[in-house]
Amino acid sequence: DAYTLGQHIRKRFRASQRHSKGRGVAIAIKSVAGHILFACSVGESGDVNLESWSCIEGMIATAIKTGHSSYYIERSLASRGRNPEQIGLGFPEYRLDGGAFPIWLTNVTATPVAVAAAYGESSQEDHQLIVKSIRDYLIKVGDEAMGEGSPRSTHRRVASVASMR
């Protein structure tokens, strides 16, 4: 569930070098319908403020509109020398900072059901925080649901996260 995933992201950040250096992060999981499923900030520095939450909203909007992570869209546009406005991602509604990742269900292919996002440092670090947390969460859920001796189903879930952008 979203709360458990959010706590997993929070725990991973608290164990990171970023946190030990006194950095902060804003974390949110939001449904495509706009419902806040999880939100928290971690850290005692001034890294997380109202602007952080505005950035998260824009990153989530990007992931919902494109069906891809905000980091993938950021890198894809940069590699082609294009800007966000050229593909309908105008600022400030959309942001390309890299920490929003769409969450899809196998039987719901039209749109992601939710987006997990983090904002606090570099796009790549925020993206990695979310992706690694989702991967670890899926492994944990798979192990609990299937028993420890079922790597095949867990591997499929992890492979689908790794291939998602």
Automatic annotation (TrEMBL):
Gene3D superfamilies: Haem-degrading domain. It holds the Pfam family HbpS-like. Residues 145-165 are annotated as: Disordered. It comes from the Eukaryota. InterPro entries: PduO/GlcC-like, PduO/GlcC-like_sf, YBR137W-like. Signal peptide: none annotated. This is Uncharacterized protein. It comes from Serendipita vermifera MAFF 305830.
